Amino acid sequence: MKKILIAVVSLLVVVVIGRSLLKVPAVQDRLLEAGTTRIAERGAEPFPESENLRVYICGSASPLGRGQAQACIAVITPEHFFLIDSGAGSTDNLGLMGLPLNRLQGILLTHFHSDHIAEIYEVNLSSWVQGRPKPLTVYGPYGVDKVTNAINSGYSHDRVYRTAHHGEELLPPALGVLEYKTIFPGVIFNNGGLKITAYVAEHPPIHPAVGYRFDYKGRSVVISGDSNVTENTLKIVDGADLLLHDALSLPTTMALKDALAEVGQSRQAKIVLDVTDYHASTESLIELGKKSNVGMVGYYHLVPVPPTALLKDVFLRGAPDNFFLTEDLMWFEFPEDSKEIIINQP
C-alpha cells in the first residue's frame, strides 16, 4: 500500500512539474517549432499515386445528428478528381485526408438542399489557394446556375480581398470564380477512361434531384444523393461494385419522433416524421440488394446519425454481410480487372 501511495504521489509531482514547464516560454517555443515542423512536413507529403479508382467519404451525415460532416463523397483516379456534394464540415475532412485539392475539377451536386451545398465556396477557396489551374465547375440539374451565381455574388468581396492581399500571381482572380454546367440524365462526362452517368432520383418535393454512377477501368460506383429506392435505382446499380446510398433507420426515426411528441416538441416531431417521405429506408435498400447484383452497399447520409454501437446495430438490422455503415474519412480502392474492394478505415 505504501508503494502504491508513493507511486501516486510521484505521478502527481510529475504532472504538476510538467504543467509548470508548459508555461515556460522557452519550452513553449520548442514544442511550437516541433509541431509546426510536423504540420509542414505532412503538408509537403505527395498524395499517394495509384492507377485505380478511389472513393473517399468526406461527409456521411444528414442534418439529423451530430459528430460527422454532412454529405460529401470524393472520387479520384490518376487523371480525375470530383466531389459529389459539399455539406457542412466536409472541407475539413478533405484536408484531413490529404486529398489533392489543387487538381479538383468539379463538384457534382445531387440537389440543392443546404446540407449538400453549404461548403461549395469553402472548397472553391481551398482549391484556389492550393493552386488549382482552372476555374472550378459546379455541375448540377436545372437551377445550378442560380446556386452558383449566388455564391459568386455573395463572396465577391472575399475574392477581391484575398487577391489584393496575396497578389494576382498567387491567386489569379479568374480562378476564384465558380463556373457551372447544367446536366441532364444520361452520360455527362466521358474522358480519360472515366464515364459519369446522371440518373433521376426521387426526393419529393425537390425536383430535379439526381444521383451519379462512375465507371472506370471496369470498376463502378453509384452515389445516390438523397432518394427513395426506385426503378431508376435498380437500373443504375446493375453490375456496380459499390452503391453508396442515402439511408434512413425507420425504427430510430420513429422512436425519436414519438419521444419528441411525448414531451410536447410537436414541431420537431413533425419535421422528423416528414423526413421519412424522401429518404431510402434501410428495409428498402435491403430489398434492392436482393433484386440487384450490386457488389456492396454502404449507407451514407445517415438519418439519423447513429452515435452509439447500439444504434449502429439498429441501423444494420436485417442487412446482409455486404452491407455496412460508412463514416467520415473511410475510403475505398478498386483494383483494375478485379472484384476486390479495398476498404480503408479512418
TrEMBL record:
Keyword annotations from UniProtKB, A to Z: Hydrolase
Entry's Gene Ontology molecular function annotations: 3'-tRNA processing endoribonuclease activity
Superkingdom of origin: Bacteria
The UniProt record lists the keyword Hydrolase: yes
Keyword Hydrolase in record: yes
SUPFAM superfamilies, sorted: Metallo-hydrolase/oxidoreductase (SSF56281)
Positions of the Metallo-beta-lactamase domain: 101-249
CDD domains associated with the record: arylsulfatase_AtsA-like_MBL-fold (cd07719)
Pfam families: Lactamase_B_2
Xref: InterPro entries: AtsA-like_MBL-fold (IPR044094), Metallo-B-lactamas (IPR001279), RibonucZ/Hydroxyglut_hydro (IPR036866)
PANTHER family, sorted: ZINC PHOSPHODIESTERASE ELAC PROTEIN 1 (PTHR46018)
Protein name in UniProt: Ribonuclease Z
